[in-house]
Amino acid sequence: MKKNYLILFLFVLAKFILQYSLIGSEYELHRDEYLHLDQANHLAWGYLSVPPVNSWLAFIVKILGNSVFWVKFFPALFGALTIVMVWKIVEELKGNLYAKVLASIGILLSVLLRINMLFQPTSLEILLWTMLYYVLIKYFSSEKVTWLYIAAIIFGIGLLNKYNIAFAVLGLVPGLLMTKQRKIFRQKHLYFALILTLLIVLPNVLWQYNNHFPVIKHMKELSERQLVNVDRFDFIKSQILFFTGILFAIIAGFYALLFYTPFEKFRFLFWSYVFTIGLFLFFKAKDYYAMGLYPAYIAIGAVFLAHLFEKGLMNKLARPISILIPVLFFLPLYQVAFPNKSPQYIIDHPENYRRFGLLRWEDGKEHSLPQDFADMRGWKELAEKVDREYEALGKSGNTIVICDNYGEAAAINYYSKKGIRAVSFNADYLNWFNLSVHYKNLIRVKENPEDELEQTGKIFQKSKIADFIADPYAREKGTVIFSFEGAKIDIRDRLKDEINEEGK
User: Fold this and answer.
1) Which residue among 26, 61, 181, 327 is least crowded, i.e. fewest CB within 10 A of its CB?
2) What is d(CA 41, CA 499) in angstroms, rounded to the nearest whole number?
3) What strands, in cross-sheet order, belong to the sheet with 480-487?
4) What's the rounded Cα separation, in Å, for the pair 61 and 389?
5) Cα gap 468→287, rounded to integer Å
6) Are 249 and 103 spatial neighbours (Cβ–Cβ below 8 Å)?
7) Residue 229 in this model has a pLDDT that exceeds 70
8) How many CA atoms lie within 13 A of 193 on its CB side?
9) Separation CA 220–CA 500 (nearest Å)
10) What percentage of the chain exceeds 70 in pLDDT?
11) How far apart are CA 201 and CA 197, in angstroms?
């Protein structure tokens, strides 16, 4: 047992080392990370796009000094704990050390390395999905009602982290109904557990109610602007690519759930997968929404393969080969899937990046860097230049900084040395304007300058282009910093009008 847990510790250690080594020093945080970190400055029971849990983590990061080390710590921790939970599932299913190692290496060398790079709710979400399946396996193995209440707590925290976990439960219900485990619906403690979940999420429900359910507006916008462009075939293809190196174990897990007698009591998990994926396809969900499904099935498949390879020549050959497969699949991805090469190196060696389609952005065009990598450049430069202009305007308390998007505003707030609280007419910043100040000056950060000087300059005594983002590798390259001084009117009325317009 001690040897087993020493190996598990080594996997956890390897996870942290990999996560901290996959991002080169030439890259900064990603635009989405800055927004989540800024939520620590506006703690609430909900936000326009996400529930509150990640903001609590951001607040802890803030207390610890807001350093990049701590920003990266929590997603790495959740990734490491996902490996631990997979290990525990294998253990619960009576898997041996080989099964534990196979499942762990399949999780370690997978798409989760990309997910666990970023400070966002997805890393915790995947962990919570895995924990939920583990607890259900524990319940149906022992039928101790305590596990139902633990599942309720996990589900409640999951909803406070990201509403997407509801799809896991929506898939579980018909999956259970199709098997003998439908008897769970006759268990009164199931409904008491659901009441516990409701109590956990109640503060967020009340916040949604008091704010006119912004989640509905967000889902509508998401459906109209992004999900409408989702190709269902691409969604299915991504499910195969996410865990390519360990796909054989996932398939083995599906087979075992259907036909392997020792796993009969867990057959509901096969049908739950079918229904959950069906729901995602119906709603044209983003491919990564389904990622939380797979760790549990990798664990189940690893146990089945361990039983299959127990004797003879098959045991001697299949075990080392199966463990080697995830490593062999990971090696080429290590070269291109992570920001561990300098921008200049990528520009000089575009072939592999192009072959994997990584240079094509969401605008459909090919660029010199992968979009995610370009989204990790230029932010410090922006903040330094805005700081410089903010100081030049003198009366800093009377200057408001307004940006085109949440990435710009959040990055300025993260890096600013002048205590700037930049805002935007985008995302949660609509609710974070301080309209109690009579602003005299304005710094406007715009991606598309157009006629900004002419239009906005009319209501100020002085106007100029102060600077722009010059980083040739940044997605924000060319973004202009305008400076307006000496407002001729009270600009708060205009701000209120635009906030109301954007908030509709």
Assistant:
1) 327
2) 20
3) 423-424, 399-403, 441-446, 480-487, 460-468
4) 28
5) 35
6) yes
7) no
8) 18
9) 18
10) 96
11) 6
pLDDT (mean) for 27-31: 96
Prediction pTM value: 0.93
Listed residue (342, 343, 412, 346) closest to 380, CA to CA = 412
User: Quick one: pLDDT at residue 237?
Assistant: 87
User: Can you list the pairs that 187-195 forms with residues at least 24 positions away whose Cβ atoms lie under 8 Å?
Assistant: 187/145, 187/148, 189/145, 189/148, 189/149, 190/148, 192/149, 193/148, 193/149, 193/151, 193/152, 194/152
3-state secondary structure of 30: coil
Please return the burial class of 328, using the count of CB atoms within 10 Å of its CB with bins 0-12, 13-18 and 19+: exposed
> Cα separation of 148 and 46, whole Å?
26
Which of helix, strand or coil describes residue 424? strand
What are the C-alpha distances in Å from 288 to residues 114, 248, 293? 11, 20, 10
User: Closest by alpha carbon to 484, among 446, 454, 448, 456?
Assistant: 456
Tokens representing 378 are 């230029």
The alpha carbon dihedral of 212, 209, 129, 38 has a sign of positive
Pairwise CA distance, residues 321 & 12, whole Å: 23
Backbone φ, ψ for residue 65 (5° rounding): 115, 0
Q: Assess whether pLDDT exceeds 60 at residue 312.
A: no
- Residue 185: exposure state from Cβ atoms within 10 A (0-12, 13-18, ≥19): exposed
| Type of residue found at 86 | V
d(CA 351, CA 344): 14
Contact 440, 487 (CB under 8 A): yes
Cα–Cα dist 209/452, whole Å: 38
Distance of CA 501 to the CA centre of its chain: 29
Q: Examine the pLDDT at 110 and tell me if it is beyond 70.
A: yes
DSSP 245: G
| Rounded-to-integer distance, Cα 253 and Cα 204, Å | 36
Whether the Cβ atoms of residue 89 and residue 135 lie closer than 8 Å to each other: no
Closest CA to 167 of 295, 254, 273, 265: 273
Task: Assess contact for 301 and 251: CB atoms under 8 A.
Answer: yes
Residues 6+ apart with CB under 8 A from 292: 125, 126, 128, 129, 130, 164, 165, 168
What is the DSSP secondary-structure string of 77-138? Answer: HHHHHHHHHHHHHHHHTT--HHHHHHHHHHHHTSTHHHHTTS-STHHHHHHHHHHHHHHHHH
pLDDT at 222: 66
Pull the structure tokens for residue 225. Answer: 């602007």
CA distance linking residue 353 with residue 368, whole number of Å = 10
